[in-house]
Amino acid sequence: MADIRELAELIERFSKEDGAHATSIPHLFLHRLSQPSTPLYSVYEPAFCIIAQGRKQVMVGEQVYLYDASKYLVVSVDVPIVSHIMEASPSAPFLGLRLDLDPAVIGALMMEGDLKAAATAQPGPSLGVSDLSDELIDASVRLLKLLASPQDIPILAPLAMREILYRLLRGEQRARLSEIAFAESKLQQVNRAIGWIKRNFRAPFRMDELTATAGMSASALHQHFKTVTGMSPLQYQKQLRLHEARTLILSQSVDAATAGHAVGYESPSQFSREYRRLFGAPPLRDVERLRDALNAASP
């Protein structure tokens, strides 16, 4: 049986530099960081995540999750998060993997294995942390070993990924996995609302269109949306706007007013105020801080 140290060695072998690394195995990404991070703002998609070395904090709304090499994380819907690598150093870098989850594959495996969906009347939070089993580590190690033999990936990688999903479906996160798979679950209704907001986040907020897309009343959608994402639909839209504006300012060197207008803000002062509330500094000062941190991390 493989152990977490072997998994860490494999991640380090196939991710020589800091950052997130796509691999030749579809949906599999490796993460490495040689120092603790400042808060990182991003949007998580449905995924299974393991930390093989180091420790991380993830915050969704007001919910805080801590996990390390003894735990795994499951994400059930697209959700804005704030993450913080808490333990990492050049001699013992943070090492992790992420496997993106496909609802169709989960659903097919449940039917094939005659695995009944977990009975839940209401959806739970979009993130869940559980103890990492030896079986999950073993399947993950076998998956990563395939990176050394690309000719075996098309045949053997799907088998290892199926085993990982099977182990998850038999574990504590079964409810989240099964909700991802079924289109008419409350979680999927919230997910349809999330998809509508992501497609239309630059436009004025339309609650009537959102509820029609989700197939829920406004009160039910608000309740379930906040349970899953930790925020209201309007707060979710604001976070998407601000994340996109931050990316525009950082990558395209546009000014704050232009970035705010591009993501749907009509008032520059409102944009600056909400940006500062989320990221802790006005747009230009925040981006300068980010660039300084990136430059300091560069070899």
Task: Describe this structure in a few short sentences.
This protein is an alpha+beta fold and 299 residues long.
Protein described:
It is a single chain. By secondary structure, the protein is an alpha+beta fold. The chain has helices at residues 4-14, 103-112, 134-145, 153-169, 174-181, 186-200, 207-214, 218-229, 233-252, 256-262, 268-279, 283-297, and strands spanning 19-22, 28-33, 40-44, 47-53, 55-60, 63-68, 71-75, 79-87, 94-100, 127-131. Helix 2 crosses helix 5, helix 3 (134-145) packs antiparallel against helix 4 (153-169) and helix 6 (186-200) crosses helix 8 (218-229). It is globular. The mean pLDDT is 89. Keywords: Transcription, Transcription regulation.
Approximately how much beta-strand content do the residues carry? 15-25%
Order of helices and strands: HEEEEEEEEEHEHHHHHHHHHH
**Mean residue pLDDT:** 89
Number of helices: 12
**Helical content band:** 40-55%
Rg, alpha carbons: 20 Å
Shape type: globular
The SS-based structural class is alpha+beta
**Name of the CATH homologous superfamily of the largest domain:** Regulatory protein AraC
The rounded distance between the terminal residues' Cα atoms is 37 Å
CATH architecture descriptor name of the largest domain: Sandwich
Spatial ordering of strands, largest sheet: 1-2-9-4-7-10
Instruction: Extract low-pLDDT stretches.
Output: none
Count of the separate structural domains: 2
CATH top level class name of the largest domain: Mainly Beta
| CATH topology term of the largest domain | Jelly Rolls
Q: What's the total count of β strands?
A: 10
Reported for the largest beta sheet, the result is: 6 strands, antiparallel
InterPro entries: Homeodomain-like_sf, HTH_AraC, Tscrpt_reg_HTH_AraC_N
Keywords: Transcription, Transcription regulation
Protein name: AraC family transcriptional regulator
Domain HTH araC/xylS-type: 191-289
